[in-house]
């Protein structure tokens, strides 16, 4: 199991445009988390993501509905946003009853990172709560667009106001303010997502030229000293590349789950802490870290103790869904003439907002 | 809103031929002279009525730029109809039809109805492709053909609706297996309710002028049935 992570540059040395103070989400407080938990059903195993309105929400329900039946086996991470524009203060563009549901998902569940962005327009009934997943009266929701994430740049625009800046490669820019009904934790997850999309994950790579000797191997293939059998063995079977992909995906799926895993970790962390208080243990190994030193997802051994998030549940070795957008997988990279940078991460690297030339419009009028 | 069928359409063709404008004219009845370059898919939907049945058109407007071609290919799957659009004022967009058609044939189901559209018919003075050429291409490749103007709305309704009529006829002829979602046709709650009633009406009862022999037949029965109550609700209309 991998525990080493390449060191990251401190944020103040970074040239990248996203300015995030903390590398990892810090939760408002565990008391706040308990408050969210209070919203969840008591019976069974509640899914905190559902309770927070970021999983199995309206957008997810729509794309998974028979009408679209898109990405049926992929989890959708989503939230409601209000579209705003810059002026002296941020101003809402539409009436309060109109929100925008923004979500990310994977065209194929085994992909290590989400690769699809979903946008839908939601029109709520008067006085209706605009956050929760299963309102008594369904609002009107219309799927507007599906964008490959590699053609989209997501940034944290205003942390205090909880505003995301979404820019497409065609220079269409949206300023999206997280709906006030969402708790602060939800915005922290979006920050986390932006970070992951921007920097990737240290244990995630699709580049075959990068030799990976750790981590991308399922536990069953790891020897006790943590070295991978994969590096020494040729993949067996008639379709080695597929086997390799499956193996990699299986390992990588741990990494891509970070957003959702954070949710589950918090839940586990909370319950573990309460258990520890009950038995009054003083073992140093089991000492609960302080809030500021939560190891989060870097320390995967720490994560092993916790419930797997939705992103981790897929089984790449099983039958893959016939995703309608399957070819959107990260391997396809269009050679777009209007910009030189089309690696999604490349959009961020060392390029300020002003450095990117405006995109040209189509020459002829469109009728 | 309840519907009997949902047809998935895909709009394809070179960049700048007016695909998004056609969609906007059809769904919103308005024309927008400058439109952002489409990336990914933009969606539109509209209800139409054919043979007294409510049909929902779910329209996928795709990117025309060559760079996005590999992605566009993934959207063909499950489309019942395609609008293949060229610009009558740009010969190159007509010349590229063969490539688009090959893509469409290769990545969609073989029964997909394809409507060839020569758009921007209002720009007669700048015409580079004769109407007869479009007709000949359509005849040669078994397509339906129309010239349209998204700007003036000329023939826009007809283009979308005639495509739906063709699909509907194919359903009636049994060409389309509507239970196979890969064909781009989904049975809506209206039709499902119809089927449920049909199942209960077996045993020689006649409903809507058609004798139903089995629930299986009822499932593919496209005829309007007055006895069937509309469904109470459908969440995502």
Give a brief outline of the structure.
The complex is a heterodimer of chains A (367) and B (237). Chain A has 367 residues and is of the alpha+beta class.
Shape of chain A: globular
Supply the CATH class of chain B: Alpha Beta
**Main beta-sheet strand count, sense and barrel state of chain A:** 8 strands, antiparallel
Instruction: Characterize the largest beta sheet of chain B: strand count, sense, and whether it forms a barrel.
Output: 7 strands, mixed
Descriptive overview:
The complex is a heterodimer of chains A (367) and B (237). With 367 residues, chain A is an alpha+beta fold. In chain A, 22% of the residues lie in helices and 15% in strands. Chain A has seven helices and eight strands, in the order αααββββββββαααα. Chain A has helices spanning 30-39, 48-51, 58-64, 184-199, 240-256, 258-279, 300-303, and strands spanning 77-85, 91-92, 98-105, 116-123, 140-148, 152-158, 163-168, 173-178. In chain A, strands 1, 2, 3, 4, 5, 6, 7 and 8 form an eight-stranded antiparallel β-sheet that branches. Chain A is globular, with a radius of gyration of 21 Å. Chain B is α/β, with parallel strands linked by helices and 237 residues long. Chain B has one domain: Rossmann fold. Helices cover 32% and strands 23% of the residues of chain B. Chain B is built from eight helices and nine strands. Chain B has helices at residues 19-28, 69-73, 91-95, 97-107, 131-141, 156-173, 189-200, 215-219; strands at 5-13, 41-50, 53-62, 81-87, 113-119, 144-147, 185-187, 206-207, 210-211. In chain B, the strands form two sheets. In chain B, strands 1, 2, 3, 4, 5, 6 and 7 form a seven-stranded mixed β-sheet that branches. In chain B, strands 8-9 form a two-stranded antiparallel sheet. Chain B is globular and about 45 Å long. Residues 197-237 of chain B have low confidence and may be disordered. β5 of chain A pairs antiparallel with β2 (41-50) of chain B, so a sheet runs across the interface. Chain A: Residues 271-296 are annotated as: Disordered. Chain A: This is Protein FAM71F1 isoform X1.
């Amino acid at each position: 199991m991998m525990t080493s992570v390449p060191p990251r540059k401190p944020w103040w040395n970074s040239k990248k445009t996203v300015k995030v103070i903390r590398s990892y989400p810090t939760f408002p407080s565990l008391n706040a988390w308990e408050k969210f938990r209070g919203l969840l059903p008591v019976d069974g195993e509640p899914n905190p993501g559902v309770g927070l309105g970021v999983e199995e929400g309206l957008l997810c329900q729509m794309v998974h509905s028979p009408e679209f039946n898109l990405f049926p086996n992929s989890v959708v991470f989503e939230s409601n946003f209000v579209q705003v524009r810059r002026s002296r203060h941020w101003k809402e563009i539409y009436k309060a009853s109109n929100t925008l549901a923004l979500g990310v998902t994977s065209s194929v569940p085994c992909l290590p990172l989400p690769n699809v962005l979903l946008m839908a327009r939601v029109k709520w009934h008067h006085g209706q709560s605009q956050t929760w997943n299963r309102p008594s009266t369904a609002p009107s929701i219309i799927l507007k667009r599906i964008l490959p994430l590699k053609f989209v740049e997501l940034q944290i625009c205003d942390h205090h106001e909880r505003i995301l800046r979404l820019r497409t490669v065609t220079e269409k820019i949206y300023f999206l303010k997280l709906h006030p009904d969402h708790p602060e934790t939800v915005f922290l997850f979006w920050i986390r997502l932006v970070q992951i999309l921007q920097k990737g994950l240290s244990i995630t790579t699709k580049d075959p030229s990068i030799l990976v000797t750790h981590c991308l191997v399922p536990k069953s293939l790891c020897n006790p000293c943590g070295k991978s059998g994969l590096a020494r063995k040729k993949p067996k079977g008639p379709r080695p590349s597929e086997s390799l992909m499956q193996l990699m995906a299986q390992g990588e799926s741990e990494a891509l789950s970070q957003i959702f895993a954070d949710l589950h970790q918090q839940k586990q962390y909370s319950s573990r802490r309460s258990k520890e208080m009950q038995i009054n243990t003083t073992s140093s190994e089991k000492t609960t870290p302080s809030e500021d030193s939560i190891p989060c997802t870097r320390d995967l051994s720490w994560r092993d103790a916790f419930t797997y998030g939705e992103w981790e549940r897929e089984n790449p070795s099983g039958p893959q869904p016939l995703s309608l957008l399957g070819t959107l997988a990260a391997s396809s990279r269009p050679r777009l003439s209007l910009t030189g940078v089309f690696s999604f991460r490349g959009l961020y690297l060392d390029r300020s907002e002003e450095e990117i030339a405006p995109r040209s419009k189509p020459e002829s009028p469109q009728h | 809103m309840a519907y009997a069928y949902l047809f998935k359409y895909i709009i394809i063709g070179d960049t700048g031929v007016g695909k998004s404008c056609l969609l906007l004219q059809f769904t919103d009845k308005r024309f927008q002279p400058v439109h952002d370059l489409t990336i990914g898919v933009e969606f539109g939907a509209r209800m139409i009525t054919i043979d007294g049945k409510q049909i929902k058109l779910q329209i996928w407007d795709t990117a025309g730029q060559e760079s996005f071609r590999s992605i566009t290919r993934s959207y063909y799957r499950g489309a019942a109809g395609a609008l293949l659009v060229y610009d009558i004022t740009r010969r190159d967009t007509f010349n590229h039809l063969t490539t688009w058609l090959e893509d469409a044939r290769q990545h969609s189901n073989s029964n997909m109805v394809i409507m060839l559209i020569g758009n921007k018919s209002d720009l007669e003075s700048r015409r580079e492709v004769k109407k007869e050429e479009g007709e000949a291409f359509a005849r040669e490749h078994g397509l339906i053909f129309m010239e349209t103007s998204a700007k003036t709305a000329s023939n826009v309704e007809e283009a979308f609706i005639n495509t739906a009529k063709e699909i509907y006829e194919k359903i009636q002829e049994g060409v389309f297996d509507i239970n196979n979602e890969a064909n781009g046709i989904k049975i809506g709650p209206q039709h499902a309710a119809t089927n449920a009633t049909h199942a209960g009406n077996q045993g020689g009862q006649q409903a809507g002028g058609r004798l139903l022999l089995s629930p299986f037949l009822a499932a593919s029965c496209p005829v309007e049935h007055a006895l069937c109550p509309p469904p109470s609700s459908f969440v995502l209309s």
